[in-house]
Design brief:
Elements (H helix, E strand, L loop, with lengths): L4 E5 L8 E6 L2 E8 L2 E6 L14 E2 L2 E3 L6 E3 L16 E2 L1 E4 L2 E4 L6
Antiparallel strand pairs: 1-10, 2-3, 3-4, 4-8, 5-6, 6-7, 9-10
């Protein structure tokens, strides 16, 4: 089981902002979407490129390399050339801190 990693204190990550964090060797991107926090792996499943340079539109991030869209809330691949979802990570608020962990190996 992986440990929870603190990303920011509540209020440090404004709505519409994102922060990259290493979670047990995986790069995660934590987003604040209108006060709700979501985390996905920073990997486009089309070619393993990073998603973090991409534009965010609503609850979607657009891969900066080939334009695939992913749902930030679910990790679902929404458009070609990506067909597989990117991993999502659980996020919690603990002692006024936004925390994330990689639960894939539990």
């Amino acid at each position: 089981m992986s440990d929870w990693v603190t990303v920011a204190r509540v209020g440090e990550l404004a709505s519409g902002e994102r922060r990259i964090v290493d979670v047990d060797g995986a790069q995660a991107v934590v987003f604040n979407l209108e006060g709700q926090y979501y985390a996905i792996e920073d990997v486009c499943t089309h070619d393993s490129g990073q998603l973090t340079g991409g534009t965010v539109e609503g609850d979607q991030i657009i891969c900066p390399r080939h334009g695939a869209r992913f749902c930030i809330r679910t990790g679902e691949a929404l458009t070609a050339p990506a067909y597989e979802p990117t991993a999502t990570f659980p996020v919690r608020i603990e002692n006024d801190e936004v925390q994330v962990r990689d639960n894939r190996w539990d």
